[in-house]
Hints:
By secondary structure, the protein is α+β, with helices and mostly antiparallel strands. It is 41% helix and 18% strand. It is built from ten helices and nine strands. It has helices spanning 71-87, 128-151, 153-161, 169-174, 178-189, 199-209, 256-265, 274-295, 301-319, 327-337; strands at 16-25, 34-45, 48-59, 95-99, 107-111, 220-222, 231-236, 239-245, 252-254. A five-stranded antiparallel sheet has the order 1-2-3-5-4, covered by helices on one side. It has a two-stranded antiparallel sheet with strand order 6-9. Helix 2 (128-151) packs across helix 3, helix 7 (256-265) crosses helix 9 (301-319) and helix 9 (301-319) packs antiparallel against helix 10. The longest helix has 24 residues, at 128-151. Mean pLDDT is 83; it is low at 1-6, 171-185 and 190-197. InterPro entries: CHK_kinase-like (IPR015897), EcKL (IPR004119), Kinase-like_dom_sf (IPR011009). Residues 108-298 form the CHK kinase-like domain. This is CHK kinase-like domain-containing protein. It holds the Pfam family EcKL.
Amino acid sequence: MVYDRYFCETGSREFVELDSVDAKHFERNNSRVNVVHRVTAHVKFSGVTNTFHLIVKQPRQLDDSLLPFSQSFLNEEIFYSKMTHDYGTDNIPKCYLSDLGRYGRPVIVLEDLAARGYMQAVDDKLDEDHLKLCIKVLATFHGKGLKLREYNFPIFREFYAKLYEPTDWLHFRTSPNADKVRIFESTLKNSALKDEANISEIIRKMEDVTTKLELNDFWTICHGNFTRSNLLFRYENGRPCDVKVIDWSTMRYCSPSIDFGHIFLQNLPGNENLSEIKQFSENMLRIYLEAIKDKYQEVNYKSLEREIISKLPFAYGMIENHMLGETKRMLHALDLLGSFD
């Protein structure tokens, strides 16, 4: 067990000596704000060499900012140094160090999950086995947050108050406009999915729903970008058996429906049968709600269900421009769940 910044047990009297370090630059989608290295560190414990495979993150100095590092880096540092004490560490990389500069430059040092066999899913979409695993992990995180909010609000408030995203960020990112509607209608008109649904009416309803996101008792700390690119899987006999969530720099305080909607809507099956889309959607929602209930038994199940369903259009509004080919299927999933009722 690695504790804080040390490579040995708490209270250990072993003599620890750094032997050597091999480092290689590692590109990720947030490389604009962070410098990331894949590191192999050889450390001697009382003369015996042990090898640690690490990911080392350091923030870039932003030319247009008075801060010494990006605020998204601050989000991730808060997560690893503070929040994990209350949220746990089951489905995240092991953290060796998370610090804003006591030992020099700000740095986050994590285990390199690739060395333990974790990898991104190969396919562009997650299949049902992958998706169920991810939804359960997400629900566990949300359930812990909702329970913490209910029973230890001062600690919970300390966490979300330090996140850099404003509480009204969704209002600006999901406000409808005429160009967006024209894109929807053009895409849906040319879609191979044929049925009797009035798509224009669905779009109008979506505009009504996504003009404002109201703060309520179900708001919690969310990952903010809970998508395939930030999920690493381990496999047994060709099937996913565990998943780790990475890149917590996008955390924000909002409806948990945003996280759920990201992973759910982007991984709908290609099946064009509406009854099967409805069954799949209801099943994924049930898995999510039951997993939250497992962690926070006092939660009002029906009220939470209404919260998730009613706020899903906000998640849709954030991702539809990136998945225009899926627009019609996503809208139908929302409509079948009752998001526009």
